[in-house]
Phosphotransferase (Micromonospora aurantiaca), 327 residues
Amino acid sequence: MTAPPNLTVPVREVALARWLSADPAAIEIGQRHPLAGGVDSPLVERVEVTALRTTGGRDRFEVVAKRASAAEVIALHEIAKVPAADAFPELIDAGTDDSGPWVVTPFYPGSTLPWDADVPEAVFASLARLHYRYLGRASRLPVDLPRVDESFCRHALMNFAPSWIHDAQRKSPHPVHDRALNLLHRWNHDERIHVGLHVLPAALLHGDVYGHNVVIADDEGRRPHLIDWGSARVGPIMLDVALSAETSSRAFSAYLRAWEDVAGCPLDPWQAEAGHAWATAFSNAMFVGAVAARFGPTHAEEMLDKAEAALERFGQFLAGGRGSLGS
């Protein structure tokens, strides 16, 4: 299967040579193979690359060429600046042509985790380093990065999540769907949701941290890579943590250790715990429809239970008087 000519992503010898520290004339571009891509990408391909050694040998590599969103291109440029963020993909090349933005990254041989699997600690350590770098600097990031603001929350609660729930209802009606729609309607007007946007620190986020976006390498090191940055956005830091790591988990502890390592001091406990409660509530509400449609009512019921309990906890944090945080 070949991509339509107007969608084919450029794979340029000069960029590959720079990545491989090779002579561009020694780079050969081979066959392209379709890959399953992110939700918003019309084209993702695995491309064979050969580098000819001066001794006559041939080194073979593979890269991923992808039609990307503007947000993904920005995010990949930004994460390349984060020291010691080993779980993030490299950016080999990027650009924009008549068909829109595109990126080229290494292909990481391995397998993605199940959607509800525990995300490795190394991913959260890299996320802590990313969040720390952009905390307090979110306003300096390009406007093409979506913001988790009042408009974003309203769309998530009143459009994105309900559209998935209605899809699940059409396929197999269940009482949990009505419960979810009722909660989303109420939360669109819940002051606690909106207060969270103003009292919790924002930074650059991956935006969709869960098992299907983590590739575990086939090698002995089993190194994880957090892929598909098409949902990158600016928002409260715990949105990248809460959906896949409870505060009692080793992953959350790894996040806090990495934060302290790079910052030289711990993340403020109120920010960590109140932020986690708010993000648990909002992210479970935002994705409950997708989970109901893809994985069934039992998982959706669990998400709603978790969301409601988390928003109550966040309300308790607010009542405790620690709602004044840095921007």
